[in-house]
Amino acid sequence: MIYIQNLRKTLPYRKLFEIENLSINDTDRVALIGDNGAGKTTLLKIILGIDNEYTGEVNVDGKLGYLLNYDNRDKDISGEIYSRAKLNPNERYSPGEYQRLKLIDLLYDKFKFILMDEPTSHLDIRQKDELIERLNSREKGYLLISHDRDFINKTCNKIFELFDGKIEEYNGDYKFYLEEREKRNKFKEKEYIKYEKEKRRLKNLAINIKNQSSRIKTVPKRMGNSEARLHKMGGQENKKRLDKQVKAVESRINQLDIKEKPKEEVEIKLSVPDSKRIHSKILIKSENLNKRFKNKVLFEKTKFIIKNNSKVALIGDNGTGKSTLLNMILEKENIWVHPNLKLGYFSQMNDILENNKSVLENTLNTSIYDETMTRIVLARLGFKNNDSLKNIDVLSDGEKAKVKLAKILTSDFNYLIFDEPTNFLDIRAIESLEDLLKSYDRPFIFVTHDEEFINNIANTLLIIENKSIISFDGNLTQYRKRKNRTDKNNGEDELLLDFRISSISSRLAMDIPKEERKKLEDEYKKLISKKKN
């Protein structure tokens, strides 16, 4: 289907990637992952023939369909597609609705191999589940870029990781990739230990031979020719032999296959002194919350509480009021907020950075930690060594998002509010953010559509549904299991209800005493009413 040989892509200032050999079959379901800036979207454009500035061979045997992120082409979408998306061509709609429309149009042709760049962008959890179902029902395969690990795990059977200019293949889903990556890292560590041991052995051998050579005396200046000849015939010949051995050993050291030391991350703890902690059981609450925009009601006579030490995921379909609720908490609009809470707020739209200052300066300005700890947090989010000295105005949107996150995590806040913190982050940055939030000892609330992130971080859910806010102690997987059990029990109750109605109906058809008939008729009416409700 797609065959790549000796593909090399360079930018004016660096080599982007070099791929010796890569092939994709028309039924493969591939996720292309890697850090931001590694060249994932560029590779898709090369395969599609949009980018022709490269060396090497790229051959495509078959029809391709594609959806690129930030693709602003005016597409001629048919009325049938609008109908399938339940949208009116003459109306304005949200980014999530437009993304659904483009995906329905793309997936309509079942005979194309498709390439997708961030297909879950702007989709809520329910819409993402619909997309997963559609992709899994396809016979033709696809190559997609995504930072959503749960989505990758449910849709892909092969992972291509673009890292350090090379592609590494993993034949399995995302969970397999994680396990295999761990195995490969352990293997690399063993190889590094073997390399270091052998290098140390050879260096010690060279030192020992040099010491032996140095103990052999050289020919004294005043020694006669005959005496010198005798001296050379003895020790000096041995010295030459030993010196050759030293060179041979040094040559072996230089010929060793160099193994890089795997990077080890020190465990950190982002904590505050006990004197600054809030000991109240409830931090935020509302007893009678109402909110509407024009004719649209978001919340109606609902209530909720947020307990201390809770890590809350706020979930709900697009348009149900998640961001609105976060802003209501910030503004304390009909919501009680503990007076000692210092709220920190992260949003892609909220600009808290000084463009003329460096990454490190921006973070240190508000950090409650020393420079070493602040640098460690920045390094975890991708700003290592001199990267932290870059000015904000030269950074990409994704890099600015990481600086904002570092700044908020290290500031003097005791309650954090995150609105879509995983947007613009690559998978490694999302994993790093997870680790930082696990080590963060203060409570927070966040909105995201990344299910893996929710399951790894949240211990409480606030679910916006039918203009109400429902609370659940646990993560999304636990909530779904509970809901499935409840639905199953409700189904079993309905079977019992039907069975009882049928039994009463049969009994009423018989010749029975009036008193019994009256009781059965009353019960029958109640059961029918219950079934209708």
Characterise the protein shown here.
The chain is of the alpha/beta class and 533 residues long. It folds into 4 domains: 2-172, P-loop containing nucleotide triphosphate hydrolases (Rossmann fold); 182-255; 276-474, 3-Layer(aba) Sandwich (Rossmann fold), CATH 3.40.50; 480-532. The chain contains 15 helices and 18 strands. The strands form 4 sheets. The protein has a 6-stranded mixed sheet, with helices on both faces. A 6-stranded mixed sheet has the order 14-15-16-12-17-18, with helices on both faces. α6 (174-214) packs antiparallel against α7.
- CATH architecture label of the largest domain: 3-Layer(aba) Sandwich
What does the average pLDDT come to? 86
Which CATH C-level class of the largest domain is it? Alpha Beta
The count of strands amounts to 18
Percent in helix: 40-55%
Strand % is 15-25%
Main-sheet strand order equals: 5-6-7-3-8-9
Largest sheet: 6 strands, mixed
**Derived structural class:** alpha/beta
CATH superfamily of the largest domain: P-loop containing nucleotide triphosphate hydrolases
Characterize the overall form. Answer: globular
Q: CATH fold name of the largest domain, please?
A: Rossmann fold
Helical element count? 15
Rg computed from alpha carbons, rounded to a whole number of angstroms: 33 Å
Question: How far apart lie the N and C ends?
Answer: 55 Å
Uncertain stretches? none
What is the count of distinct domains? 4
